[in-house]
TrEMBL record:
This is UPF0056 membrane protein. Belongs to the UPF0056 (MarC) family. It comes from Acinetobacter baumannii. The chain crosses the membrane at residues 6-28, 40-59, 71-91. GO terms for cellular component: plasma membrane. Pfam families: MarC. It comes from the Bacteria. Keywords: Cell membrane, Membrane, Transmembrane, Transmembrane helix. It is found in: Cell membrane. The keyword Transmembrane helix applies.
Amino acid sequence: MVSPYLHSFALFFSLLNPFLMSIYMIGLIRHSETKVFNKALIQGSLIAYIVFMLFAWGGEAIFSKYLNVRFEAFQIFGGLIFLVIGYRYVFQGADTIGEMRGAPEHLAGTIAMPFMIGPGTISAAVVTGIE
C-alpha cells in the first residue's frame, strides 16, 4: 500500500513539473543576476508553500464560507485561465509568457504564480488536506 505522504509528493511533483518550470523561468534566468534570481526563487517557493498549507488546512472552508463559491467552479475558472494563456501562446508566440510576468520588482510573485500556485496545485492541496 502506498503511503499517503508518498502519494501527495507524487501528486505535487507531477503538477509542479520541474521541466515546465525551467522552460517558464529560462527568460528570468537569462535576464537576472544569479543572486537576485536565487532570492526570488526562494521567496516564490515560500509563497507557494504558505498557500499550499493554507489550502490544505482549510481549503474547503475557504471556498464555501469565505469566497462563497463551489470548489468545482474554481476548477472550471482555472481551466479557462489556462485556456486563455494557451490560446495567446499559440497565436502570439513565446513573448506571451514574458508579458504575463509583470514588473521585475515583483519577481517572487512572478515565479510563484501562475504555474506554482495554479488551479491544479490548489486543488491538489485541498484534496490532500481532505484526505
